[in-house]
Amino acid sequence: MTRERGTHAGPRPRGHGATTTAGAVLVLGFLGVFFAWPVVAILRLGLRSGIDEVLTRPDTWRIVAFTLGQAAASTVVALLAGMPLAYVLARVPVPAKAVLRALITVPFVLPTLVVGMAFRALLGVSEPSAWAIVLANAFFNIAVVARTVGGLWAQLDPRATDAARGLGAGPFRAFRTVTLPALRPALWSAAAVVFLFCSTSFGVVLVLGGGRYRTLETEIYLRTVRLLDLPGAAVLSLLQFAAVLAALAVAAFARRRRESALTLRRARGATRRPSGVEWVTVAAAGAVLLALAAPILALLVRSVSSRTGWTLAGYRALSGTGGVLDVSGWQAAWNSLRAATDATWMALLLGILACLVLTSLRNRWATELMDAALMLPLGVSAVTVGFGYLVTLHVLPGDLRTSPLLVPFAQALVITPLVIRTILPVLRSVDQRVRSAAATLGAGPWRIRREVDLPLAGRAVVTAAGFGFVVALGEFGATGFLARPEAPTLPVAISALIGRPGELNTQMAYAACVLLMLVTAGAVLVIETLRSDLSGEF
Amino acid sequence: MRRSTARRTRAALAVAVTLLIAGCSLTGTGRDRETRTVTLVTHDSFAMSDELRQRFERDSGFELRILRKGDAGELTNELVLTRDAPIGDVAFGVDSTYLSRALDEDVFASYRPEGAAHIPIKYALGANERPTPIDAGDVCLNIDLRWFERHDVPPPEKLADLVEPRYRGLFAVPNPATSSPGLAFLLNTVDTFGDPGWRNYWRQLLDNDARISSGWQEAYNQDFSGSSGEGPRPIVLSYASSPAAEIGPDGQPRTRALLDTCYRQVEYAGVLNGTDTPKGARELMDFMLSWQFQSRIPEQMYVYPVVMGVELPESWQRAAPLPESPNQMKPERVERNRAEWIRQWRSLATG
């Protein structure tokens, strides 16, 4: 394993040792209190009574194999489908690109139960289907690929590809030998995140697997929540842990080999009309967009359908109060926005701090370990974390277990790795020579951070914020197993409505989905505007 | 360069400040520790109108805080896990399927609320005074009346009918391993056909092309033809109360619950052991048996009140009467066998 970065000898961007240590302590402290401690506590409760026969049962290993297999397949599909979109976002002058970005992001927030039901109807699958699971997982995660890869792609200097083309390389060869290697950090980042999301995917596997297809996540849920079989759940959690660590090790290994300094530049001016075979990619992106739009359209149609024709009854009911909901749809939307804001700023703070620490550490193993530790919450069962909170957090003052603050904390746990995966590739790609030059000119470590790293990573920071916000709006991770705040958010309202009989409740549920999509699209548009302001600065 | 840096810094600051302010709006809602608060831990299906809540708060002097956690199973298991440091003062929603676990683990303190004398004997737990029945929700087969009329097929009446060839491919049921009503249905088949007779019944049911979905939502909203989803199957496992939500513009219900196929789930509430607000907890228990609360149970939670003399809404009396002799299983028997029955069901259903 050679370290290509070594070719650019020079000072690594290093804060004062003490500052780095303080940052590391804060980040790892948060991770320790809100992740490691609860998880270890609930595992210990389970393992106290000894490991039972879970490991020797053949269906346990079938479940492990299916978990990894469906996650890998979903990741491949998401990568293949996300790449054309990343290309279009980065290189093609599309009018109103912010709208396109918003559209791509919308699937990410939709409740898995509702999307699972939409897929069930659209694909006409009445029987449990592994392929439907893979497609639905990919549907949720295409945004991760398009945005992570597209973000880096937009900042690659297009002249490198032009030079390759000028030297006689065909478009495919130029892509394979110039663009693809440069994109690898982002590709591996995206792949790792998508893989972790898919390996812990829960609602989709339940709805489309009908209970026949079982993953570690659904099995841990069954044993913990329904059977309170903590020993069995603990063993499965350990297996999940091992699988996640193995996946992270593979990704880290691949990333290390490939990462090199890139010539980053401002994104403006890198787009141009596609020509020749590039249109094929654009067409592929169009097809992916249509596929993304189909379930969304299905939800829209359902929200205005009744037995007798079109109706706006669901929307009208949603704008008032009463029935199952104790608040109006607007109030729920506002609650969602507030909760997501809290989670996002916490995650940004932690994520940026973590990135600075990760690029400052000189010990490679320490870097890899910390990086992997911060990714773990994505790959560990939400049930395990949620139940872990129950048996630990009362020890802290103020009993966080029932505090509305716990929800943003738990969400920050999921968002922080995404923040890191978005910002870190860009920071790591910064040419060391630029930093060296700044140091030669007399800039101190923090000045280098401010004047070199921050401007180059600025776009990534805003991207990360936007993405984190969207994750929080969709309520991923442990929040499903925390005490529901009294102020219901949109996803909570949707699940309450869809769980009741009656046409109006169903219409309201779908109308609330549409509202959630609009809120998401609006948030993404605002953030896009902010981002283009930023990128114009350098 | 300098100017643009300053502008950037300003922009970043503005963003940070906005985020912080917005953040504070949530963090600022923490309740004043001085007020007397009573916390109700319950499941996601719990609903209580603002009006009722205000009435309780006014009459008792306690502020009511409601924590919702998953379904009855999740709620019970979380109560067990937090027994030594309870997350609330009163729990509502532990049902007959999980009651025995809560009792074994000593989750509830003894308290006999005012009004407990008006609960009919059929809901009572015997000499034990804890916890207290609050409502009953029966899980029954529901049928799409129009479908059976149109296809000139006589509707089924008993569970055993479902394995007949004429009902082939007509039944949708949620998975007992992943869904609460699904588990109630499994218990119903055990109660009806005995152990191990139920396994034979399920094999025939599956051979007769019963469709299993992971949750009630898919079975009822998507597979069932009588709901607004207008799916392909006219028989579904749902609740005795569901037809009350399917009344057409002509005032006639579109669906009917088959009252000879019902399994009774009683939901209980109790004061949690270790509460630091016993007085408030008792007030809340009394309130849940009060006429005001009981009479609103049907429309708010789609289940039936337990207190004698509390009338059902008019539409319920027509479309969703309370089943008279539903099946029921002793909570201890459920507790002893639940995990094993689920395991056996899974191995016969998924091979």
Based on the model shown, name its key terms.
heterodimer, A: 538 residues, mainly alpha, MetI-like fold, 20 helices, 2 strands, 74% helix, disordered N terminus, B: 351 residues, alpha/beta, D-Maltodextrin-Binding Protein, domain 2, ten-stranded mixed sheet, 10 strands, thiamine binding (chain B), signal (chain B), thiamine pyrophosphate binding (chain B), ThiB-like (chain B)
Written description of the protein model:
The complex is a heterodimer of chains A (538) and B (351). Chain A is mainly α and 538 residues long. Chain A has one domain: Orthogonal Bundle (MetI-like fold). Helix content of chain A is 74%, strand content 1%. Chain A has a two-stranded antiparallel ribbon. Chain A starts with 16 loop residues before the first helix and ends with a helix. The model of chain A is unreliable at 1-15 (pLDDT under 50). Chain B has 351 residues and is α/β, with parallel strands linked by helices. In chain B, strands 1, 2, 3, 4, 5, 6, 7, 8, 9 and 10 form a 10-stranded mixed beta sheet that branches. Chain B folds into 2 domains: 37-136 and 265-319, 3-Layer(aba) Sandwich (D-Maltodextrin-Binding Protein, domain 2), CATH 3.40.190; 138-263 and 326-350, D-Maltodextrin-Binding Protein, domain 2 (3-Layer(aba) Sandwich). In chain B, α6 packs across α7 (197-207) and α7 crosses α12 (331-350). The relative contact order of chain B is 0.17. At the A-B interface, α4, α8, α9, α13 and α15 of A face α1, β2, α3, β6 and α8 of B.
